[in-house]
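User: What would this chain look like folded?
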Amino acid sequence: MSYFFIPVPITNPYTIIFPGDKNTKGFDVGAYNPALTDGRASNEEINQALKEIESVRRPFYKKMLVSISTYVFALIFGVIAYIGLTSYLNKNHSTFANYLIYPFIIYIFGSVVFFIMSIKKNRMNGRKAALEIVSKYNLIFASKGLRWHLPVHFPKWVELWKDYLGQPNPQTSFYTPPPEYGAPGQSFEATSHFQKPGGYEL
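Assistant: Here's the prediction, encoded as structure tokens.
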């Protein structure tokens, strides 16, 4: 659930960050200009790639809104049902009212688990679709020494790696990306301190 609270990192010398736009549900490209990639990628090329990735990001937020709405409804329904049943049983002097708290706790716990699993499944499906798009564009951008990358917290932001700059300073933080992002053992600079060195945690 850290997705909702993690800050978006800033662009650094080796990685360009395109943060999500809450209003358009797309990505903010306003700060990009070709000078950031030493003229290797035009605004049109960047926009074209991001528009396809946005086609995955927008449905993600629609599904997330549905999940949140369902969870809130289930929570409100559970509280009202618990209060109503407890009140009714107490009026009838039923001892069962003392034990009603246990199924209520199970219900709330189950609702939370369902909500978390729903969000995770939504993100995994969106990531899989986005990886197909990224892989297609990386075949094109590879000749420019650039590479699109989906961070752990995608679709909160997307990254463009400057592979043409070579390896960053060994004194900086490193991580080893999973196989779909590079050859095993190949290291790149972590784009923020929120990504743990040594790999990704999904």
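The radius of gyration is 23 Å. If you want, I can go into more detail on any region.
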